[in-house]
Write a structure and sequence with these properties.
By secondary structure, the chain is an all-alpha fold. Helix content is about 55%, strand content about 0%. The chain is flat.
């Protein structure tokens, strides 16, 4: 402290220089408009096994999955063989199941033969599956196992139904499913509209009447089968008769529709030759369908219409034929101009593509 009367001392201020301001934050670096990150560069040599992804390559994975399924099939093989021995020899439908059993045996033998050519999982080199021959073996094994896995249950289901043992009631429901689906579709979808001819309307009405009768008869058949008042073969034969009757009615409807739409012989042949999409029918696991395919032209009913689900067949044919007729009248070169004005939506029948998509 300064003495009295003395001038006060001024403390020298430390010169710190100009005050620094905070540096503004850098704007975030934006990615290119594509938004794609460049792929990372490989860090290890291709010859280094540890550089390979730990997940198996597709052929290896398919082999592992197929071998696991094959082990399950072999474990249940005794059940399948017993079911094949129990099939009634006098049954016409048992012949289709016996053919399924032969397919099962052949498929298992092929799968076992291919398995013997494939190293075990622990013995497989990390690069196994990259060569064409190895991929071919993986495919052959997968196909053989899938075929065996598909038919082994068919043999057991046929035995249960034809002997009324095990889960025979579920097998019976699978046989009636195509007809019940056809009847349900008829109840929900109109077959004709205001553009339909009188002949077409009459054919549609006849199909509706047959469907109602078939619905009642399926219920009666189920009851008599449960009460053992009819044999499984007789009940299946009656389902086939209903299928033929409904198929014939849909063919009549098809003919009347062709007569209305075709303007000349060329269009008539075009519509008649339009094919249905068979994928919809494959959803059914039907012993009746397999017997029909096995008999072929040797059947007593060869030449008669027979569609497992007749309404599905007609619906699929209708959309295919409408598209064919549209393309015929409006070829691609003249796609911008409509010559005939024909369109599938105004031609009658089911209500557009949504109708067949229900199946």
């Amino acid at each position: 402290m300064a003495a009295p009367g003395e001038p006060g001392r001024v403390r020298a201020r430390r010169c710190r220089g100009p005050r620094r301001h905070a540096r503004p934050a850098r704007p975030a670096r934006r990615r290119p408009a594509t938004g794609r990150k460049p792929p990372p560069l490989p860090l290890r040599s291709h010859h280094d096994p540890s550089s390979v992804s730990s997940s198996p390559t597709p052929p290896r994975r398919r082999v592992d999955d197929s071998l696991a399924r094959l082990a399950e099939i072999e474990g249940a093989r005794l059940r399948t063989e017993a079911a094949a021995r129990d099939l009634p020899e006098a049954s016409e439908y048992a012949r289709a199941a016996q053919a399924d059993h032969r397919t099962f045996v052949d498929s298992v033998e092929r799968a076992l033969a291919v398995r013997s050519e494939i190293p075990s999982r622990s013995a497989r080199h990390w690069s196994w599956g990259l060569r064409g021959a190895e991929r071919a073996r993986a495919t052959a094994l997968e196909e053989a196992v899938s075929e065996a896995d598909r038919v082994d249950d068919l043999v057991v289901e046929a035995r249960d139904l034809l002997t009324r043992t095990g889960d025979w009631r579920e097998a019976w429901d699978r046989e009636t499913a195509p007809l019940r689906d056809a009847i349900a579709e008829l109840e929900q979808s109109p077959l004709t509209d205001r553009s339909a001819s009188a002949v077409e309307t009459e054919a549609a009405d006849s199909l509706h009447d047959l469907a109602r009768q078939a619905d009642a008869e399926i219920g009666e058949l189920t009851a008599t089968l449960e009460e053992r008042r009819t044999s499984p073969d007789e009940a299946l034969e009656r389902l086939d008769t209903l299928t033929r009757e409904l198929s014939a009615a849909t063919v009549m409807l098809q003919s009347s529709r062709i007569s209305r739409l075709a303007q000349d012989d060329t269009e008539q042949e075009l519509l008649a030759r339009a094919e249905e999409n068979p994928r919809g029918q494959r959803r059914y696991r039907s012993l009746r369908a397999r017997r029909h395919a096995l008999d072929g032209s040797a059947s007593a009913y060869a030449g008669q219409p027979w569609h497992l689900n007749p309404v599905l067949w007609y619906s699929s044919w209708q959309h295919t034929s409408d598209r064919s007729l549209q393309q015929h009248r409006n070829p691609p070169s003249n796609a911008s101009s409509s010559v005939s004005g024909f369109s599938a939506g105004s031609s009658g029948g089911f209500s557009g593509a949504g109708s067949s998509s229900r199946f």
